[in-house]
Write a structure and sequence with these properties.
Layout lengths: L1 H15 L3 H10 L3 H17 L4 H22 L4 H22 L1 H4 L5 H13 L5 H51 L1
């Protein structure tokens, strides 16, 4: 692990060598530029996590990265990664719905966004299979239990929506006929 960190820091140093301002920063502070940039990144991350940017940071982690990896999964020939990201989105959706109902309470919890961020990383990181564990151990049973009820309500909603659209287009057509006469 330490060797990987050193390798990444050396790659960062080579990339930072392109920018003369980084050399000036290193000379004035006597801090290697790669450490200065990493430190600044950690400070920005902490600022976002513990300030008004915490919600934004959670949305980036919860939406942006999984959306990108979902895109990659869709485009890959492997179907197992498709399932992994579908499970992520099901779990994330349920989490978001629950969060909406209890949001008044959640925002009083100190470091809520730090916990939320850790949870989202747990859900989305492929090596941990957090979303799959939550789905298999909780959500799958709940969804299977209420599947026929939900399907019946969805069918009724579709029928109501179709009737409303038909009604609206019939009313619109009558209005057009009256305007022409």
């Amino acid at each position: 692990m330490a060797d990987q960190i050193k390798l990444q820091l050396s790659k960062l140093r080579i990339w930072l060598d392109k920018y003369p301002a980084m050399k000036v920063l290193e000379e004035k502070t006597h801090v290697p530029k790669e450490y200065a940039v990493c430190g600044a990144g950690v400070l920005v991350f902490l600022f976002l996590l513990f300030s008004n940017g915490a919600g934004f940071l959670c949305n980036v982690i919860g939406f942006l990265f999984p959306a990108y990896y979902s895109f990659k999964a869709i485009e890959s020939p492997n179907k197992e990664d498709d399932k992994q990201w579908l499970v992520y989105w099901v779990v994330y959706s349920f989490f978001t719905i629950i969060e909406a109902f209890v949001s008044v309470i959640l925002y009083w919890i100190p470091f809520y966004y730090a916990f939320k961020l850790a949870f989202l990383v747990y859900l989305g990181y492929p090596g941990w299979n957090g979303a799959t564990l939550i789905y298999n151990n909780f959500l799958k049973g709940v969804l299977q239990k209420y599947e026929s009820t939900v399907d019946a309500h969805l069918d009724a909603a579709k029928a109501s929506a179709a009737a409303a659209v038909a009604n609206a287009s019939q009313s619109s057509g009558e209005t057009d006929i009256k305007k022409k006469n």
